[in-house]
Amino acid sequence: MNPILKNSLIVIAGILIGSIVNMGLITLGPYLILAPEGADVSSREGLKASMHLFQPKHFVFPWLAHALGTFSGAFAAAKIAERNQMKLALGIGIFFLLGGTANVFMLPSPAWFNTLDLIFAYLPMAYLAGKLASKNVQSSAN
Secondary structure of 46-77 in the HEC alphabet? Predict the structure, then answer.
């Protein structure tokens, strides 16, 4: 198979896997940490209007969703790839970082969360995933 096509399919698979993990955690979060009293989290508009009611604990699952979604997608892509594992993993990280940056402009989250999210949830997780997957690929090749 053409390497460009193969790598493109690997990146798409990584994005899909990461997105599924992300949405799974975003969906699970409100069941484990209840939304603040009076907050409407059923729509983006309701979430925007009630964001001022959120406490730090309400940002745990969004951060985990972003970090673990990126990690799982980057790990899967790097694990599947025969070469350029780190480049593909970081490509997934950049994709999710762009989504996280867009989210900063769409939802009025606190500055501390935006900073934590953008600095630690995307590229570091993609890098870690790439490192771990590359080690596993190298050790299984021996």
Answer: HHHHHHHHCCHHHHHHHHHHHHHHHHHHHHHH
CA dist 23 and 139 (Å) reads 32
Rounded Cα distance, 30 and 24, in Å: 11
Separation in Å, CA 131 to CA 26, 79, 86, 111, 127: 26, 10, 7, 30, 6
Q: What is the CA radius of gyration of the chain?
A: 17
**Sign of torsion over alpha carbons 34, 36, 37, 40:** negative
Separation between Cα atoms, residue 62 and residue 68, nearest integer Å: 10
Given pLDDT bands bounded at 50, 70 and 90, which one contains residue 72? very high
Tokens of 59: 């940002």
- The one-letter code for the residue type at 67 is A
The encoded tokens of residue 57 equal: 């604990």
pLDDT the model gives residue 108:
87
Both tokens of residue 99? 């989504």
Neighbours of 98 (CB within 10 A): 11
pLDDT average, residue stretch 37-46: 85
